[in-house]
Amino acid sequence: MAFVIRKLQEGVTLGEKLREMRQAAHLTLSELAMLTKIQKRFLEAFEKGDYSSLPAPLYARQYLKTYIQTLGGDISYYLELFEKEHGTCDCIAHARLPRQRTGSKQLRLTGKALRMTIIFFVVALISVYLGHQIFSLLQPPSLMVTEPYDGFISPSPTITISGQTEKGVTLFVNKQKIVLEQEGTFHAEIILERGVNIIEFEARKRYSRPATEYRRVIFETEGG
User: Fold this and answer.
1) What is d(CA 37, CA 1) in angstroms, rounded to the nearest whole number?
2) pLDDT of amino acid 150
3) What does the record list as coiled-coil region(s) (predicted)?
């Protein structure tokens, strides 16, 4: 294929020089696209200087190299011209702005996600803490009766009862309130009736279910 070599004017852009070289070869953009295997829209972008429509610089340079090789031009010269225009073209700066905005948006989204994650964990911790406190509040208080043991037989009408519960608890023995000592322990005496006596210990705490213990005590005098 014979090419007509025209003298290029100073100040002419890369795109204008490429178009003039293609037209000198009597090729349309569609024909050149078939020869180079490069999409027509990229060839048009080169000739219009629309670098924002080109792919990444690495691929753009390879396309330009193929373009020049096909038309028999000076590859080094045109690549150098491309680098000069590519680095100073305003459209490149505009093309990069969306990336900057996208990066900024990603940072904002990441920061928002981090804040939401922190808030979620704080709320979860507070919920667990409050749940534990409510569960503890609703649990019956501890109650341990050390005296008497269940089934105790007493020869005396008076026996001593003792045990321990939690501080702040109200204790009732057979519906009678018993004063607790400082650490929640208690001691008292009760009077038995002849035969089997059922002693009820009930520890109450605000908002919770009561804790209840029972002791069976038998009062028998010597000789029956």
Assistant:
1) 18
2) 92
3) none
- Residue 47: Cβ-neighbour burial (10 angstroms; 0-12, 13-18, 19+): buried
**Pairing state between β 170-173 and 176-178:** antiparallel
Q: Is the CA virtual torsion 175, 180, 183, 185 positive or negative?
A: negative
Angle ∠(204,206,207) on CA atoms, nearest 5: 110
E strands of the chain, at which residues? 143-147, 152-154, 158-165, 170-173, 176-178, 185-191, 195-204, 211-219
Name the token pair of 222.
């010597």
pTM surpassing 0.90?
Answer: no
Q: Can you tell me the distance from the alpha carbon of 191 to that of 60, in angstroms, rounded to the nearest whole number? A: 105
Per-residue b/e over 154-180, b at no fewer than 16 CB within 10 Å?
eeeeebebebbbbeebbbebeeeebeb
Q: What is the DSSP letter of 217?
A: E
Q: Measure the CA–CA gap between 92 and 194, rounded to whole angstroms.
A: 107
Question: pLDDT tens, 57-114?
Answer: 889 999 999 999 888 889 999 999 899 888 644 444 444 444 545 566 667 778 888 8
